[in-house]
Amino acid sequence: MANKKRPTARKAHKKGPTKGSGGKGRRSLRGKGPTPKAEDRVYHPAHQRKLERERRRQGKNSGPTNELVVGRNPVIECLEAGVPALRLLVAQGTGHDERLSKAVDLATKDNVPIDEVPRFELDRRAGNTLHQGIGVEIPPYQYATPRDLLDAAHQSGEPGLVVMLDNITDPRNLGAVIRSTAAFGGHGVIIPERRTAAVTAVAWRTSAGTAARLPVARATNLNRTIKEFQKENYQVVGLEAGGDATLDDYDATTPVLLVIGSEGKGLSRLVRENCDTLLSIPTADWVESLNASVAAGAVLSEFARQRRAERRPRG
Q1: What is the DSSP letter of 307?
Q2: In terms of domains, do 85 and 219 share one?
Q3: 73, 122, 144, 262 — which has fewest CB within 10 A?
């Protein structure tokens, strides 16, 4: 019997795409690896919290660490103001412009070392990528004492004008108050030792370098410091809405300690009770309150105007 021919298997011809790409898309599929943790991404808020935890942990075991002021204009302002700079950091690959050249020239003139560092290193130090490729490292701020401010005012031969901050926790507010106090002839700023904004890199930057020239003092107890100024014949004036005097009719030509609270909390109870006068700033009825640094600028400007008028020859 003749052998029957077995049917051959038919090949299946699929239409459409086949599985895989033959290795052609292997590189694109590989990707960039796993997504980094949030705390390792310099632009993420979790990274800021990580840096803050590290700073606190370091602070338990060592003294204050150096600060870093970043940004081309802030760096120039600090160098021009004579900030005690330790070194100028420039990120590798940073494009040169007039401001960068000026910062380098100022650093060279003052014998400040200039280091070129990898960009990621400046990202890490600054806590973000908004440093414009440049930063200046400065030592921890050296605080004065309230007594130092009294002595400085006495030696100036002018009526003392000192600003005290109560419940101010934003370093940008502190920097802005330092700048206004310097601009309007004040002799210094007093802050409490605890639970307050300190002169950090943010305050340095906001003060536009004036923190290098205007002394900032730390007080162990604000109420004891107030009494010390009162013994030196200072009028202690607390800023508060609805105070017993207004800026329009207050005579600020005598020594004044101006006390400013936060926009939210205002003055502490004991601080308020120890003030000689509570002063309000006339504003439009629909404006509830002013930011602490804005209020300080308005009052200090008026006090400076009165003192200029007092020195003007009468005739």
Answers
A1: H
A2: no
A3: 73
